[in-house]
Design brief:
The structure holds two protein chains of two kinds. Chain A is mainly alpha-helical. Chain A is built from 13 helices and two strands. In chain A, helix 2 packs across helix 3 and helix 3 crosses helix 11. By secondary structure, chain B is an alpha/beta fold. The chains are: A mainly alpha, B alpha/beta. At the A-B interface, helix 8 and helix 9 of A face strand 5, helix 2, helix 4, helix 10 and helix 11 of B.
């Protein structure tokens, strides 16, 4: 008897499996996360219930979850756009930073009293700064075929250090007692909070952008081009689409949206530019976009779920004295298992036991050297 | 009857793949000293049956006997141990290694210090015995396809295969090389080897084999003695009805040049010149065939003629307009359409559905799109119309194209490229891998395009197809045009073969072929 294991592609996914696979993946992630928490000396069940209670247990928790979901949604839309074209923009974090720097610069040097004018200025500045940051990587890719994963990732560090230069240096608020942060923005540069919570009007952008890009990808010529280019670049040039032009354009737009997410976070929530303000939204957005299978509307939902994990994680740090990195581990496990589950959607594994044994060879293998 | 004991016998072999029966209770045997041809259309189950014999697949039912004893093969290693070797269409050779290194690939119990001298001697001995001329120290990537085939055959002989399975070995060869291969095969059978010759070319089968087994749609049609049958009979058994490759091509007076190039030069993907100073023109109401062994610049030429590849020098004219190095879109809008050889990789977006693929070449035009927006209703009705007119069989227009069969995929592509009544259609291997009826449909459509007043540039490796379809035939070798034949059907095939091997037409005309 011999056992053979064969991996075969599926032609179609059975409907039950479509639901079962993500649920099992999530379950497996939480289970292995539980093992990890157990070894940290924490009861996994208690930790998970803390996460749920703090993020969904009351209206404050829910509002905080939404606060986290706003920048996540925007950044995830940004990376989704480039991923759809199979351009690996890992640089949303840096593009968020550039958007934030541009916002702070606008407030510092071009402050006007009219709110709408101020909003427009900040919006354009953040979009342009993030967009250019993305387009640099896009241009290098288009012109010299430089791998965009490397350039976008490296540009993240450039942006981060640029931000540090400003908040530690020329833009530091003298009254901040030495903390690396700028002065608080004037009221005209602040997005209003809603319903007496920390949810700011950036929420509307976070709801509008997914709808807008869902429509663009589905109903416009350009959206069709982007999808074709992502699925098969050869077919795209065969159909006369300009891959190079669109790489730059998509990277600009992707960066611009991420930049605007940075603006929302600054003008809406934090009210000043400070060291390490983003908390890794640009990286988490990559997870969100893939978990949502690059569907713009699903991104909203997944961002909310990820918000639960972020809010719950912060509480875990306080209540159970767990390090922030343990929450990152949970995030990583979820991505790992959900993407791993993809494999079982695409392929099925067949294990078979073969009866009989191979017959003995008629003769020895040819060995002319003997 | 006094027949020799067969070297190998397959009994009642059945193999199913995901609901499709690829082989249903097939009997097959090979006797020493014979060439047993395995004949059938694409998809008839020839390769499946032989992959079972070679141990790559396990049969669902049935038994294999070698030298009279029952055998179970779990892998090609088991099959080789029983003396069965196979040369696939795509040779299983390591490109970066030398010929002698490929010989010992995967052999067990090699001494720690490889006895290179013994191995080389053995290669040279085998190669002179069977007329398989190779250089043991050459790297495989340096060899031509014909030479690589010799290495692949040697590899099996080196392993002392008594039975050699050759999967469509002549598909990649020019006629002279094929002739040489036949000599080798005759030498092997003279020494008592058994050869299985998989083919769908009737002439070769008639010429070479002593018996023929015909498969159709996975079932055994019969095994006949070659001497007691005719080409027509075999063809009928193969397709199931009397349908010989015959086309109705009325004489038409060609019109003006539609697509022309002058001294066109272009580089291949690896950077060296793949198209060298090519000048040709395709006219209205004309099919210009391009013959040549695969990889002699045909594909690069087509790409340079459609804006997909940069022309280093020379000009490309469409209806007299200079479009050298214009974008592919300009070519499409000027009525230049292209069916690439690589259908799934270049011509289609496999993960997108039939309707999304149907509009790939027209998504910027009305009524399929209006302004910035795609009009999906129009797209759906266009796609429905297309699959009806070109009889594409698909479950629905929402089916991803990757699930379509090769024939239906090609019909869809043909429909897409022809729906605009293009000025010129470039078709590269348009019937490759299609069954007889789908191939017939494709040829009919190409002739339709010609009768409608359009032009066709047809690249193919099937000489018979080229000769019957083309009004004129250009022969390419190493990126150059060896000559353009005005009446290809009146030229001896050997002359075309010589041109494919690199002899310019003028040289042939100076010294006419002696027969």
């Amino acid at each position: 008897m011999r056992m053979t294991v064969r991996i075969e592609p599926r032609l179609s996914v059975p409907p039950g499996l479509k639901l079962l696979i993500p649920l099992l993946s999530l379950g497996a992630a939480l289970f292995s996360g539980g093992i990890f928490l157990y070894f940290l000396g924490v009861s996994p069940l208690k930790a998970y219930s803390v996460i749920l209670k703090s993020s969904l247990g009351d209206s404050y928790g829910i509002s905080e979850t939404i606060v986290k979901a706003i920048p996540l949604t925007m950044a995830a839309i940004a990376v989704m756009l480039s991923f759809t074209m199979l351009i690996w923009n890992i640089g949303a974090e840096g593009q968020i930073f550039m958007g934030a720097i541009a916002t702070a610069a606008t407030v510092r040097y071009f402050s006007v009293d009219s709110r709408p004018a101020m909003y427009l200025l900040m919006f354009l500045a953040a979009g342009a700064a993030g967009g250019v940051w993305g387009a640099i990587a896009g241009y290098f890719r288009a012109k010299w075929n430089v791998n965009e994963i490397i350039t976008t990732l490296m540009l993240n560090y450039v942006a981060m250090n640029l931000l540090n230069y400003f908040v530690f240096g020329p833009w530091r608020d003298p009254s901040s007692l030495g903390f690396p942060m700028t002065a608080v923005f004037p009221d005209s540069a602040r997005l209003p909070f809603l319903w007496g919570t920390r949810i700011h009007t950036g929420l509307f952008l976070a709801l509008l952008l997914p709808l807008l890009f869902w429509g663009i990808l589905r109903y416009t010529r350009w959206g069709y081009e982007i999808r074709v280019m992502g699925e098969n670049p050869r077919a795209a040039s065969f159909a006369g689409m300009s891959y190079l032009k669109n790489v730059v354009l998509v990277m600009f737009l992707s960066g611009a949206i991420a930049g605007i997410a940075g603006m929302g976070e600054l003008a809406g929530l934090q009210g000043r530019l400070q060291h390490g303000f983003s908390g890794g939204y640009g990286y988490t957005a990559i997870i969100v976009a893939w978990l949502a299978r690059l569907h713009p509307l699903a991104i909203v939902l997944v961002s909310f779920l990820m918000g639960i994990l972020l809010v719950g994680g912060e509480t875990l740090q306080i209540v159970m004295r767990l390090p922030l990195s343990s929450v990152m581990v949970l995030q990583g496990l979820i991505l790992f298992f959900v993407l791993g589950g993809e494999f079982f959607r695409k392929f099925r594994i067949r294990i078979r036991f073969l009866k009989g044994a191979p017959t003995e060879p008629l003769r020895e293998e040819s060995q002319p050297w003997k | 009857m006094d027949l020799p004991q067969p070297l190998v016998r397959m009994e009642n072999i059945t193999k199913r793949f995901a609901g499709v029966t690829a082989n249903s209770s097939i009997d097959f045997d090979v006797r020493p000293g014979e060439v047993h041809a395995l004949l059938g259309e694409n998809g008839a189950g020839k390769s499946t049956l032989m992959n079972i014999l070679y141990g790559l697949y396990r049969p669902d039912e049935g038994t294999i006997f070698a030298n009279g004893r029952k055998r179970v093969f779990f892998s090609p290693r088991d099959a080789l141990a029983a003396g069965i070797g196979m040369v696939h269409q795509h040779f299983m050779l390591i490109q970066s290694q030398t010929v002698w290194e490929n010989m010992i690939l995967g052999l067990k119990d090699l001494p720690f210090i490889i006895p290179k001298k013994t191995i080389r001697e053995r290669i040279l001995e085998l190669s002179s015995r069977y007329g398989l001329e190779v250089q043991p120290d050459a790297s495989v990537w340096q060899l031509s396809i014909g030479e690589q085939q010799r290495v692949a055959i040697l590899q099996m002989l080196f392993r002392q295969a008594k039975i050699l399975i050759l999967d469509e070995p002549t598909a990649v060869l020019i006629p002279q090389e094929a002739e040489r291969l036949f000599e080798t095969i005759r030498q092997m059978t003279a020494e008592g080897h058994g050869v299985v010759f998989i083919s769908h070319k009737l002439d070769e089968v008639m010429k070479l084999s002593s018996r023929v087994t015909i498969l159709r749609k996975g079932a055994l049609v019969g095994t006949v003695e070659t001497a007691e049958t005719t080409k027509e009979e075999l063809a009928e058994m193969m397709v199931g009805r009397k349908l010989l490759f015959r086309i109705d091509r009325p004489d038409l007076a060609p019109g003006r040049d539609v697509l022309a190039c002058k001294c066109l030069t272009a580089r291949g993907d690896r950077g060296f010149l793949a198209v060298k100073s090519v000048s040709l023109a395709v006219r209205e109401r004309e099919i210009l065939g391009i013959a040549g062994v695969a990889g002699n610049g045909q594909q690069e030429l087509c790409e340079a003629l459609t804006g997909l590849r940069k022309a280093e020098s020379g000009t490309v004219l469409v209806d007299g307009r200079d479009l050298t190095n214009a974008s592919p879109k300009v070519f499409i809008d000027s009525g230049v359409h292209y069916i690439p050889a690589d259908r799934r990789g270049t011509g289609m977006v496999p993960n997108m559905n039939v309707s999304e693929n149907a509009i790939l070449k027209r998504y910027w035009n009305r009524p399929v799109s209006k302004g910035w927006f795609i009009q999906w209703k129009e797209v759906f009705s266009f796609a429905r119309d297309l699959i009806a007119r070109f009889s594409v069989s698909t479950p629905s227009i929402d089916t991803p194209v990757r699930n379509l069969s090769g024939g239906n995929l090609q019909k869809l592509m043909l429909g897409r490229e022809l729906s605009d009544s293009p000025r010129v259609l470039l078709a590269v291997h348009p019937t490759w891998g299609l069954d007889v009826s789908a191939a017939g449909f494709v040829r009919e459509q190409l002739l339709c395009q010609r009768e409608r007043g359009g032009a066709v540039l047809l690249v193919s490796e099937d000489l018979e197809e080229l000769i019957t379809m083309s009004d004129r035939l250009a022969v390419m070798c190493k990126g150059e045009i060896m000559g353009i034949l005005d009446r290809p059907s009146e030229v001896p095939v050997e002359a075309i073969g010589l041109m494919m091997a690199g002899t310019p037409l003028e040289d042939l005309q100076r010294e006419p072929l002696s027969s």
